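Aim 2 progress update. The chain analyzed this quarter is reproduced below.
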Amino acid sequence: MHAEQPAEWPGDGRAARSERTRRAIVDAMRALHHEGDLRPTAPRIAERAGVSVRTVWQHFDDLETLLVEAGRRDLEIARGFAVPIDPTLSTAERVEALVDQRSKMFEEMAPPWRAARVHVPFSAQLQSNRDTLMDLGREQLAALFAAELSAAQDPQALLDALHVASSWSAWESLRSEVHLDVDRAKQALRLWLSKLFVTP
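Predicted structure tokens:
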């Protein structure tokens, strides 16, 4: 009769610990981003993660590699905000639901996206993450406002306008450049989107 095998082989335990450490380092970078440190150093990341600087370099080749991994995590989180909106609602109700959904996502994701924006010109992966989010946002708009787009004189132009108006860049301008609070920024976004559906 054979002895029972252990539930977790030693190698599996090491792999799990390694993955936990890797995630802790990524989360440390994201936490620093949320605190406004858009370019945290390896020692600051290590201190926040509770590991040595050497451990950081054991898991990541350089800070850009770590930023890319954090970007993948940000993409997962951002996608979680895009819950389905009932397409049978009125136009105004769908606009309201979209404004609420995107404002919550933009507020949550603004710190890491600001950090990523500094590095996007130099990272193909960060560019890909950005483009993926933009494509997903556009697809959501096309499905959510399919009826309005099909009735529009220029559906492509309307979709382009909706896409730009409801983008993070527009929201960031309202919040960081115009210095609106969340409620006033939502009001501006709601007005933009609503006016796009008004027939001249």
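The radius of gyration is 21 Å. DSSP finds ten helices and no strands in the chain. These observations will guide the mutagenesis experiments scheduled for the next reporting period.
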